[in-house]
Predict the 3D structure of the following.
Amino acid sequence: MSDGDDGQRDEEMETLEAIFLPEQLTISTAAPYYFTIQLNLDAPPIDSDCGASGDTGGRLGGDCSAADGVVCTLTISLPLGYPVALPLEVTVDCPMITGKRGSELIPALHDAVPVDGEPKVWEMCEWLRGNAHLYFTAPRLQQPRSVLRAVAEPEPMRGGFMREWCSFVSLYEQSYCKGDTRFVVMTKLAQTRGLNITGMGIAGKPGGLVAEGEESDVVEFMRLMRTEFFETLNPRGRKLTTRLQDRWPLDVENERYDVAEITLRRHTDVYKAADRAAGKVKKQNEADRLALWESKDAAVVADWERKTARSMGLDEAQRLIEVGKPLQCDVVGVYDRCGPTESPPSREHIEKQRLFSDFTIFQGKEADLGNITGKQVKTYGDGCKEAGNLFRELGREDGFDAMFTFRFS
């Protein structure tokens, strides 16, 4: 095996971008392989001694209840030659880990996750989640465990309807590890974890995923997909990218706010239409830019008016700009069932937004390719095309294009 190169580092960065949310992963603009991760630590098992007096197996102890709600910042650099020749360079900044125990954490981390030529960032994160509490030194306000759990695990707030359109590098049935196949694992996550998820996985290379339901359910399902389902994938292929996200009624109200901004731009002639008509805009590039901007805005307004069968007046536009975007508005009665002051849609209304009645795996026409490299290999090459026909019939060709066009562009 040759020394690591930028290709391997690029693959790892793409995988991390697919796993972590933007607010968790911050990549340096000056150094593309230097980044930070905000890592939420797991609570230790209830029967864990967490370093209580007595034998701890040679591990350093700490406050057991303190693991709930602690966030550590990992600063990581992938050096040239990683992951074959060199370990990654990592520091851990955690308010609960200080002094001698902090200096002993990194060697323990490298011992637990040694260099073996495979990507290690996600494995290190998992180890830290489960073991960082053993190195805690700073005490926290002591509360009964039941109180801490009540704070850490509140009842999720209901939202509106959400649909996510995602793509895999590939999606095939056989799992990377022992146990259920990938198709079974995905279906169980959608149907047996208390989540009301409908949609489909689309087998093939590339693979696809459409998941829909109440917003809190979809958010949790996608978290499970990027954690538990990823265990069925080869570490080099753990990438699930959201290509398009529908949120109702938030998308409707965001469009309304966009039209309000355009209405005010028209009112104040930001496009300098009068000056352009009079030849006062001397630079042709500037005149072309303003004309293109005006044309694109006009298309947005025309599309909104077609869908809503109405136009927006200046007073309505000024009011919307005054109160701000839907998710920021703290004035009651401005937006429809979205934002911090409004009650979310009823479940009955959410159900009406679904495209699917259940969750399935769309495999297309399965073809047997025979025995290749000692394994019985099957292909789902027609699945993508057949799925495209299905979404065209559903009137959501835009979602299909978002999932798969990137692959062929």
